Amino acid sequence: MEQSLKSRDQGADRDEAIPEPRERVAADSNLRADRDLALLARTELRSVRLLLEYLKPELGLQDMAVRHTIVVFGSTRLLDPEIARRRLEEAERAAAGDDDGAALLRARRALELSRYYAIGRELGSIVGRCGEGPEDRRLVIMTGGGPGGMEAANRGAHEVDAASVGLNIVLPYEQEPNPYISPGLSFQFRYFGLRKLHFMLRARALVALPGGYGTLDELFETLCLIQTGKRVALPVVLVGEAFWRKVVDFEFLLAEGMIEARDLDLFSFAESAEETWQAIVDWYAVRGRSVFDEDPQDQGSEEV
Question: pTM of the predicted model, to two decimals?
């Protein structure tokens, strides 16, 4: 009898040690793998994250029937001319009687550069009107999704009821997608490499407004891909020749033997939205093609 009671007591102890069912279910190990964000964040799962980051925008663009893009880069610091004027007026009032005019000089320069925001905005409208209406997504604007020159191009497309794409990137400081990207066409990236890939996959032209490191990065990445034959050629248009010739001494690179003379033909300059669009149209016309045409399949080069 005593032995029997002892056995029952031990059994009761074991029962008390068994976790409640809800506690077992709450454990991460019980989550389905495709719902376990902690698992997905592990270093060993990087290849899975890369695949997902490729597929989500790709499937989204397919679902929205986006075939080709005009990719527009430019500084996040380019201002809408109206905003630039107001800031200059504020700087002029603040500088009254102040010997330090640095802020005033910056505001004046920002107003001068704001014309490139206007060019980007107009270009977005031109591209937006080039098809057969708002539902025609054979050719749309694609930007990095941020403010400044990128916002301008998305805004121009938005103002003519055309679709446009924004590929934003997670940065140490917060950068929200600009409000002019079309619903369903704003994509967030963790990896620069996958973002660069999507910039090139559907590109029919690259347009570079004045910008800094980010714009230079994307510009030279594209020129290198074309120069090395890693993707089929496309028109590259630099807006603002004076700016670009001061930023990059292309003739010096040629004189030093760092590039070939033919490499100077990989890009052209423009001073307005109309010139930019015409440069793109003419580039294809010279080759007997339209900007809407698919790439030839016999290029003998590896498209990105």
Answer: 0.87
